[in-house]
Amino acid sequence: MDKTIALLSKYLDGDFRVSPMSPERIQKIDIDSVEKDLGVRFPEEYVFHLLAKDAEILPERGLFIEVKEEIWERPKLYDVGEAWSFLYGIHTYTACQESEDWMTLSITGKEFIEETGIKAVPILKLIGDANCYCTDENGNIVKYNHEENIIEPTNMNFWEILELELKELKERKEKKKN
């Protein structure tokens, strides 16, 4: 069962912009194809997220969630600040080939594997963070640590990670507003 809309409703308010990133819907066969091509397995709850069919917000297209710029001014080149102050949004990746390359699982997954040598595919990323959440070949959600070029277990499912990151994004937004 998909919990995307419930989680978005719980943590997001009018200070956020939520955008689907592709005009096309995907099917389970698209997800299966990416899994096969990249040699990974996506967790069941992430597949539910990708296949959600909400009329207004379509996660299968990839979600891009950000605090509106009038609330949180975007960092500029050479800006200095605490690490959290650059993390103004999150996005998920999609199996939809019509999405932007930087959100498409087949493209980002292939690049990730080639660049890191790690058999994992990014599924959720904080904007402004070099680390990301991935799924490995066994369907486990792991967190990529770019400084050490390793993946670490999260011991959480996709809904727990999405909820954690939405909650923390909301907290950062409130901190930024004050």
UniProtKB/TrEMBL annotation:
Database matches in InterPro entries: Knr4/Smi1-like_dom, Knr4/Smi1-like_sf
Cross-referenced SUPFAM superfamilies: SMI1/KNR4-like
Residues that span the membrane, as ranges: none
Domain Knr4/Smi1-like: 28-163
Name of the protein in its database record: Knr4/Smi1-like domain-containing protein
Organism (species): Aquimarina algicola
Organism taxonomic ancestry: Bacteria, Pseudomonadati, Bacteroidota, Flavobacteriia, Flavobacteriales
